[in-house]
Amino acid sequence: MSTIAGVLGLQWIIILIGIAVFFYVYKYSEKIFDWIERNTFGTQNYIMEKLELLFIKVNPTHITYALLFFSFGTGLLTLVIFGLFGSWGLGIFLGFVFSFVGWKIPKPIINYLLERRIDKYSGQMVDALTLLSNGIRAGLSVPQALGMIVDEMPAPISQEFNMILQQNQIGVTLEECFENLAKRVPTEDNDMFVSSVNILRETGGNLSEVFDTIVDVIRERIRLKQKIDSATAQGRFQGLTIFCMPWIVGLMYFASDPDSMMPIFNTPLGLVFLFGAIGLDVLGGYIILKIVNIRI
Questions:
Q1: Torsions phi, psi of 274, nearest 5?
Q2: CA-based end-to-end distance of the chain
Q3: What is the pLDDT of residues 205-254, one digit of tens each?
């Protein structure tokens, strides 16, 4: 009787948990579906938008295949490889890890490429604005001076200014073209440049002198950024060392005595400690990077 009562009690507990989960999902269904959309089709749309900002044309179908491979393909491949050698527990764990990383890593990679492009654009602004100022002093109009930059400067700034000219040629006002530039390259220096051009085109003024002033401000900002990077270089190196140390020590132990490391991967308690260690290590590395990342 006690066994039957225990089974019935367990069934009621499962039913109550199921009802609670149902009402929770029903109450937050919109947020849950939004989260699913952001991490499935939303990821594809996000990558497509960022690739357009990078001036890279890719078939959306290829992006879908790549996302499926990096998320499920790498995990399944890892599971099969380790399973063939008899390490199903380790294969399941590493397959889950690689699937999760492959699912989350495309957005950070695209963001990194976009940030690197923006940094390169910012580094070219001094030469571009100097050339633009000289062109306006020589009597050229703003579109003509922009065309000179497109011909003389390398990418990405030549691509961005060429986009301004192309949009202007199809009927978009020059002010709106510059506002679109500020949206594509959201930096303080670029916002200052765009605002100056649009304001002075409406009110009148000496654009060349304003560009010279912006160049001086950008140079001072770059000098200050380089000084801060030099001061925080040691902190970034220490943070990277602390982040990599547990992995290096673990690999050393695994190479010297694999049997002593296997309980971490094939026992529930070992997996709990492993996930906890990975989470704390990632959290510590993120906090260190936030501390040494000083915005100007």
A1: -65, -45
A2: 72
A3: 777 888 888 888 888 888 888 788 787 777 788 888 888 888 888 888 88
Given a contact cutoff of 8 angstroms between Cβ atoms, the answer to whether 198 and 178 are in contact is yes
Domain ranges of the chain: 39-104, 124-205, 225-292
Buried b (16+ CB within 10 A) or exposed e, 32-70: eeeeeeeeeeebbebbbebbebeeeeeeeeebeebbeeb
Here the tokens at position 160 are 């961005």
Q: Taking the model in full, what pTM does it have?
A: 0.72
Instruction: Give yes or no for a contact between 99 and 71, defined as CB atoms under 8 angstroms apart.
Output: yes
Full 3-state SS string of 242-270? HHHHHHHHHHHHHHHCHHHHHHHHHCHHH
Q: What type of residue sits at position 270?
A: G
Q: Is 204 left (phi over 0), alpha (psi -120 to 50) or beta?
A: left
